[in-house]
Amino acid sequence: MRVAVVHDWLSGPGGAEKVTRELVRLFHADIFALVDLLNDADRAWILGGQRARTTFIQNLPFARAHFRWYLPLFPKAIGSLDLRGYDLILSSSYAVAKGVRKRPGQVHVCYIHTPMRYAWVDQDGYLREHGMHSWKAWIIRRVMRRMRAWDTANSAHVDHFIANSANVRERVRRIYGREADVVLPPVDPNVFTLYNGPREGYLAVSRLVPYKRIDRIVAAFRDLPEQRLTIVGAGPEAQRLREMATPNVTFTGFLPQARLVERMQRARALICTANEDLGLTVLEAQACGTPVIALRQGGYLETVNEEHGGLLFSSDSPTDIRQAVLRHEERTRAPDPVRLRASVAPCFNDRFALRIHAIVNEVQSERSMPRTTADAP
Fold it and tell me: How far is CA 185 from CA 96, 200, 216, 284, in A?
């Protein structure tokens, strides 16, 4: 049986790419995407070295640096992918990947990270992040109206949805009128390993863009001079954040995975302020035995383990963040790293593989297709 995995765009490693990596590996699949902009190291890690089969957008002017300029063409481009030679289509979608065309007899299972955020969830945030104002914003809003209509119509061609969280499952119900299984994304237990040593300082890991609200954490630590904060990540907000930071805040920029894991393992807690669909970093930190302090919204309601050391705060105001840090410091019972890690075990790669294969096999059985077999993780 031939399997195709379809990803939106491949520009670097992130949470969605970790899911795509597992799908490609588990099903020995060919990979398709709007564009493939990966460097050799990322391609080796995500795709096992194979190059994605891409759309005409790959060859348009300035696409390497500015492929998002071609957003109005994304539906046409994803529909142009030729998947006729495949029996099973698995899309890993946060935008348009689920809009691929299929022929009669093919099965399409979509692992959905979220319906298009910039069309359905946070259009204003998208416009701010990309500096679009006045006439540009007017054009984009018109484009988004067409994108929503296209997205709704094409969702009917997906045979089965798998959501990355109950939070996203509710969006799928509300926007598409469809049901979805929930399978949290995979966490590699051999990478995010338990650490029982001393811990120092707090950690934030994020792209430095407005909707991640890292500025609220920086502002909170102005009034926590005795506590240190390390911010890992890069993005257009970096300079502004550095200018507002006090001496107890350190910026590292982007870090390779091994160094990021070391930071996670040694942090007193990971702090998260964005309203995330899920928040894979939260699961990875807890796999290291590190507690999480996060906003009481979105995916964090599912992923932050309050019983064994996590804390949720009510708003993203610097005052609420500061008070949450103080509550963490004043605990009479220390967080339990072993139990934090155990709480994430259902997301480990082997469990993810079993759940995905079970769902795919059930969908295939309903359509009398050959069943797949799970590879050893």
Answer: 19, 28, 27, 10
